[in-house]
Write a structure and sequence with these properties.
3 helices, 0% strand, 61 residues, mainly alpha
């Protein structure tokens, strides 16, 4: 179980590092846009991200 959790964490870090590596300017603009969101918008973004992740896990498994 711990092995799979560490693999998932490593893959998350790799995937999150792709955009800043390939296009740092786009990444910076995205962060600025996220910083300007109010709490409700940020929570909604997080919820949508979690739901997409859960759907993907369900579909893969």
């Amino acid at each position: 179980m711990w092995n799979e959790l560490l693999i998932a964490l490593a893959l998350m870090l790799v995937i999150e590092g792709v955009l800043p590596f390939l296009s740092p300017d786009t990444f910076r603009r995205t962060l600025v846009t996220l910083v300007r969101l109010d709490d409700r918008g940020l929570r909604l973004t997080g919820l949508v991200s979690m739901l997409i992740g859960l759907a993907l896990l369900y579909w893969i498994h």
